[in-house]
Predict the 3D structure of the following.
Amino acid sequence: MKVLEVAKELICFRSETGNNEEIKKTFDYIKNMMSLIGAKVDIFEKKGIAPVIMIRNHNSLDFDALVLGHIDVVPADDKMFKPYIKDGKMYGRGSLDMKSFAAVALNSMQYVIENKLPLNFGVILSSDEEKGSKGTKAFLEKYAKIKAEVVLDNDVGGDITKIIAKCKNPVFVKIKAKGKEAHGSRPWEGIDANELMFKVISNIRKIYPAYDLEGKKPRNKWVDTLHFAKIEGGKVANIISDCCEALCDFRLIETSSVEDLIKNLKKCMVKGVDFEIVSSSTPVVMSEKNPQILEYKKLAEKILNKKIKFEYEGGATDAREFAIRGSTVIMHSGSGDGMHASEEYVEVESVEKLSEIQIAFLEKLALAKTK
């Protein structure tokens, strides 16, 4: 399989989260390709839930190794769905996040099947990772017995010389302020919900400070963070707002619990304002002394002829669903920049090297299984 060509084909699909027609086309493309090499392909579908595709070289739900990823992308201009290569970089929406690495996973499946590696191997790709991964959750509810000794998570794009050892817990919180309407010229007759929200935000920032490229930066980046993803209040210019809502994106390190977050938020509330936890998960924390991870690291260093470092990542990963089931999760992908931006790109060589590393690791697992 020509990994870069498959990556280009995948990027051409406008599979923005929620674009069901394009997501279906993407999955049909993958299903046809994988069926031709003899893989077992299942597309999980449920009304109101984004589909998930599972590709296997066997019939059981017990995997020696599993690659996890997604094919949905964030919105972009039409031109970003026409990938091109320039100066060793492939540009396009999803080139880094993470269609190039989905292509790597599909290539691994072809290699395992064609070389008859004695492994129970699989690839699972979701289609709503960019908006909460409800599809993955529903998929795992149906396939509750699924388990994997090792999960290869390629959805941590940025630097092939780093293996992610920890990912934070994403917790989304909605804050609601209720006020009283009045004419904009007589604010003393109303209660401004926006002003109530400002007070609460100020209180929260005393506990969870703001960080900015041009402002304050943490000495240690492995800290709890918060950004206000969305703030809405008011209807028209000359009416005191009677309601205001804010959506907060907290990223908690492994030593910070949701319970502690709730306690902190309760201290920050004022009369007329309340909050609810919209969603939360668990952080992914892997030991840097894990034998499987160290073996993978050794192979990667040999292939790259470079030292690999461990790093911590603030972003979330669907691999958390397998981490809590006891899987060893190896979070590693290729290099690039501009994730979710207008100049998103992946370094071509890193895609090829990642493919080489993944295959070498699968061969190592197969050899160990036969002994």
